[in-house]
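pasting input
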Amino acid sequence: MTTDQPRPNNALPSDVAVHVRGVTKDFGTGGSLTKALRGVDLDVPYGEMLILAGPSGCGKTTLVSIVAGTLAPTDGDVVVLGKNLIAMPNRLKVRFRRDNVGFVFQSYNLLPALTAAENAAVPLLIAGWRRARAVEAASEVLDTLGLGDRLTRLPTELSGGQQQRVAIARAIVHQPRLLVCDEPTSALDAKNGRITMELIARIAVQPDRAVIVVTHDSRVYSFADRIALMEDGRIESVEAGMHQAHPANPA
Amino acid sequence: MLWIAWKMLIGNRVKYLGIVFGVVFAALLIAQQSSIFCGLMFLTVSQIRDVEGPGIWVMDPNVQFIDDIKPLPDTDLFRVKGVSGVEWAVRFYKGLARARMEQGEFHQMILLGIDDATLVGAPEGIFMGSLADLRKPHAVLLDDAGYKQIWPGEPYILGRVFEMNDRRAVVVGITKASRTFQTFPIVYTLYSRAVLFAPPERKVLSFVLAQPRPGLNATAVCQEITAQTGLQALTREAFMQKTIRHFLAKTGIPVNFAITVLLGFIVGTAIAGQTFYLFTVENIKQFGALKAMGTSNWTILVMVLAQAMQVGAIGYGLGVGLAALFGWGSRGFTKLAFFMPWQVLAITAVAVFFIVVLASLLSIRRVLVVDPAIVFRG
Ligand SMILES: Nc1ncnc2c1ncn2[C@@H]1O[C@H](COP(=O)(O)OP(=O)(O)O)[C@@H](O)[C@H]1O
Ligand SMILES: [Mg+2]
């Protein structure tokens, strides 16, 4: 763990899952240059759900993409789960994502040809599990998410809320230590959005895991431990959320 | 991950069928045209193939192929017999003769004369009458396709009569014979009778058929014959190859077929490649999601290739199957030659392999460069 740290003298507290300092991201060059991030500092400790909020185009997706290791910043330090992502070669980043990151996307991004259980099993399959075992493990997770009777349905046979629950199962089936959700409720109605956030808060948030949820839906702020407000490529403020502890979370 | 790739592929029914169609089209065209080509080449050597006994054909040094008759003097038979490596040797007549039928009409026929004493060179497929009857006066055998050509729609009757060179010929038997390039009826008779049926010439001996002594290498005996007699001596296989080489070199047949095969290859690649690319583009977010979730580029590459191989295998099977069906269906009622040796299957397989690999190249490029970050974009 020590070899991956950018500044060994300035050791990170071991309870910080995500450590971001001075991160900038420019898209394009010359006249079409967009400064998506203009120097972001952010820490997310383990066991916390952080909500990243702010108007459209302020850089939320860019920031979580960098934290999840799918996008390289233009400048700055990014240490996630003790690994320095800046110094990490692409090949290892792929493996890092496979082993440590769960994703929930706004548009679900389920594979339309696979059943619910197979979709939820994809991270295990990527990790090299056998198909039968992976699907079985994924089915158990779907069961806890209330989809035990939808295991063999195709995504097109599921409602939006159900599809997003399959996506959540897929995001946590391999027990990742970082969960990144980009606008998980924006395609859902209020009720399903609520159910989705409840599931993320109840099942995904664990003592050894950090969860970042991007949203501009203020109705779901109540699920957060902290809320980071972004504006024009910067984090303007970090406030405590209404959610204080996880009493209904026996791990 | 492979089954995911396959499920993705089959899940997109329309695109899948489009890609398979491209491959089937190419495989069918390539296999079918190659088979017809092989069939034609096979026809050119059918009269060598039909003479099954002797291993060596001896002929004039300038003969280029089986139908290129340059008669030898009768004495050449004895010169060949005198070669020490030769076990036995017999005369064989091959020529074209005009036959005058009972009603007065004429038919061009292929006339084959086999050795009077041994009947070496006789056809194997006699199904009516008997070979021994060939020793009766005026007796000839006729091939079944020729019989139907002369007397269409009539049942096989022995004893029918026609004239060649003003001499009576009586049909005493009917035999199967491999079809020839010229599609004339084939008449078999004794050598001594054949030379009378044929237009009179100074030299009449078309070929000497010889058998090497047991244990001797046929090619070596051929060299020995050539050295001692100055005649051209070829093993049965070498004569077939020489004949085929002649048709390959001296006719436009191979070029025509090569063009069609190439066309099938190009069009098949274009259809399969374009549809495959559209399929990949349509699924690019799925590949992006897989990459974001930690699928390596290597695995993605294997997945796309697996998809390509899958359509290749299906398309190959269907295409070759259809080609075989076509050949089988056309055997009865068309004159098309069709012969599908394993080489045709192998060539088609190699072509299909290249088609699907070429077709997937663009797709592979596309998925390898796709940025996993796209999955976060709406
Ligand atoms: N791949 C890209 N190329 C160019 N500009 C981009 C790209 N991704 C994002 N941007 C720009 O960066 C800014 C931040 O985008 P984004 O992070 O998606 O915002 P948010 O998720 O908060 O809506 C926007 O102005 C957007 O247009
Ligand atoms: Mg966004």
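fyi The pocket of magnesium ion (ligand 2) is lined by residues A 60-61, 182 (CB under 6 Å).
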